[in-house]
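input
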Amino acid sequence: MKIIVIGAGKVGGILIEQLAQEGHQIVAIERNEKKLIELQNSMDILCLSGSGTDRNLLIEAGAGTADLVIAATDSDEVNMICCLLARKLGASHTIARVRKPELADEINMFSEDMGLSMTINPELYAAQEIFSVLRFPGLMSVEPFRHGLFEIVEFRLAKEGPVTSMTLQELA
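output
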């Protein structure tokens, strides 16, 4: 799979490393030359210096044939513009890191217009995970469905306890 990652900071750097280990063809776009040199010396990936909002740089990176473009810079607005440009150039899917609450709340309204396949808010995701752990003591995992309308919850139960003798209807 051909994946372009824009922004090689903490989040982008981890993504690049994991995706490269999985054997994907990675192109990293980053403004910080030092980070690019570190990436190039540690992994077999193509590194391009510049901004993901530069149309010509996206063309050079191969955005027109990319399976996925991930914009993970420290600017929500830059991430959305990168994804819009990449989608207009022909990228199959785009993911933008959007952290600002005022943008995250409205993103669903215009994500299709911007060509966003998905948005990610790492801070919100972490807060939701913490809330799930606090809400369900003994929780092993929670999988939301239909935009959080339903959840499948996995617990580890003791052999003897009040829950083990209940029906599912009583458990609710």
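quick obs: The CA atoms of residues 26 and 45 lie 5 Å apart.
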